[in-house]
């Protein structure tokens, strides 16, 4: 990816549709036809369930009960990567639609990072012994370094496999890091977080990315900038404080990009509000993107929605998808008009 050709467009990944192959094809086709530069495979499952559920089927010590996950004892990292069907979807899609591949710059895959996966893993039995819950009702795996490290190895395997498939941007989605790292760090050291992120993305040959939701503390910013991640992906539309946290100097003269959240992706229905009223207008988005360009430089930016659109399921699939896809469409049009 040549910085001088930017900004580029991409997405975080999730959509408010049922998890079917036809829906994946529909979303992916729509994104390509509207002009997204780096379309991500459509993520139609919970980002943690997508990886923890198949993992629980091959790690005996990890149990799934009512879509919650419980770890009872020490475990071995599987020898083969899991959940590769999403990367294979991209390959199969373009084998069936080779004409569509000509209109994009590349592809993207999203992985759920080890801190977020272990945050959602509850510890039981002997492995929880001596751990006093902090911010949780029960001990969580994220509190234990060696468990987080093993999950990093698991996600590293998937990232390396996706990279071998030729996927260009591979994102390690870590929404929980915004909670774990404020002025101080919960459970871990700065060195451990940097080491863990670098391990997780170490098999990616293209552009490793990290997505963290919410307001980013200056401390977390500095930690992420010290990692080998090439794309720092954050919410700006719903967290405009992040404009004060990041500066052009953080990216100028480096091989790193800032992925700028440009349209809101999480909100609830308001009575009597029409569907199109939830969609940002092109002129508004042009001003918003221009603000980002003026502050950070077009060569340092990637334009994308704040986060995934999975929460819009609250509108129902039909309306939720219409809102989400029109937001992306207007975002792409706004950048094209600016260029």
Question: Can you characterise this structure?
Answer:
- This protein is of the alpha/beta class and 339 residues long.
- It is built from 12 helices and 10 strands.
- It is globular.
- The two termini are 17 Å apart.
List keywords for this structure.
single chain, 339 residues, alpha/beta, 7-stranded parallel β-sheet, 3-stranded mixed β-sheet, 10 strands, 12% strand
What's the layout of helices and strands?
Layout: E1 8-9, H1 21-34, H2 49-56, E2 62-65, E3 68-71, H3 85-96, H4 98-101, E4 108-112, H5 114-119, E5 121-123, H6 145-164, E6 169-173, H7 177-180, H8 190-200, E7 207-212, H9 218-226, E8 231-234, H10 242-245, E9 257-261, H11 282-296, E10 301-304, H12 317-338
Parallel strand pairs: 1-10, 3-5, 4-6, 6-7, 7-8, 8-9, 9-10
Antiparallel strand pairs: 2-3
Would you summarize the structure shown here?
This protein has 339 residues and is an alpha/beta fold. The protein has helices at 21-34, 49-56, 85-96, 98-101, 114-119, 145-164, 177-180, 190-200, 218-226, 242-245, 282-296, 317-338; strands at residues 8-9, 62-65, 68-71, 108-112, 121-123, 169-173, 207-212, 231-234, 257-261, 301-304.
């Amino acid at each position: 990816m040549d910085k001088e050709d930017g900004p580029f467009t991409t997405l975080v990944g999730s959509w408010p549709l049922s998890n079917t192959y036809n829906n994946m094809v529909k979303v992916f086709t729509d994104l390509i036809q509207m002009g997204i530069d780096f379309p991500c495979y459509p993520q139609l499952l919970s980002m943690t369930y997508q990886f923890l559920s198949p993992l629980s089927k091959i790690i005996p010590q990890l149990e799934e009960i009512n879509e919650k996950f419980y770890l009872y004892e020490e475990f071995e990292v599987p020898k083969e990567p899991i959940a590769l069907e999403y990367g294979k979807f991209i390959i199969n899609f373009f084998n069936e639609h080779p004409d569509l591949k000509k209109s994009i710059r590349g592809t993207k895959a999203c992985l759920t990072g080890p801190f977020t996966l272990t945050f959602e893993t509850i510890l039981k039995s002997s492995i929880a012994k001596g751990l006093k819950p902090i911010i949780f009702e029960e001990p969580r795996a994220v509190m234990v370094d060696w468990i987080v490290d093993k999950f990093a190895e698991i996600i590293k395997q998937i990232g390396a496999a996706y990279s071998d498939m030729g996927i260009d941007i591979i994102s390690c989605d870590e929404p929980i890091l915004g909670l774990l790292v404020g002025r101080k760090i919960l459970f871990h050291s700065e060195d451990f977080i940097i080491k863990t992120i670098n391990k997780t993305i170490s098999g990616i040959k293209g552009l490793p990315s990290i997505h963290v939701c919410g307001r980013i503390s200056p401390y977390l910013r500095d930690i992420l900038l010290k990692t080998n991640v090439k794309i720092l992906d954050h919410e700006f539309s719903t967290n405009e404080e992040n404009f004060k946290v990041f500066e052009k100097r953080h990216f100028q003269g480096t091989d790193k990009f800032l992925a700028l959240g440009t349209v809101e992706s999480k909100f609830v229905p308001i009575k009597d509000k029409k569907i199109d009223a939830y969609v940002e207008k092109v002129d508004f988005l042009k001003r918003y993107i221009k603000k980002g360009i003026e502050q950070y430089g077009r060569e340092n930016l990637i334009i994308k929605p704040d986060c995934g659109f999975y929460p819009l399921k609250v509108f129902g699939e039909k309306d939720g998808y219409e809102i989400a896809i029109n937001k992306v469409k207007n975002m792409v049009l706004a950048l094209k008009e600016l260029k």
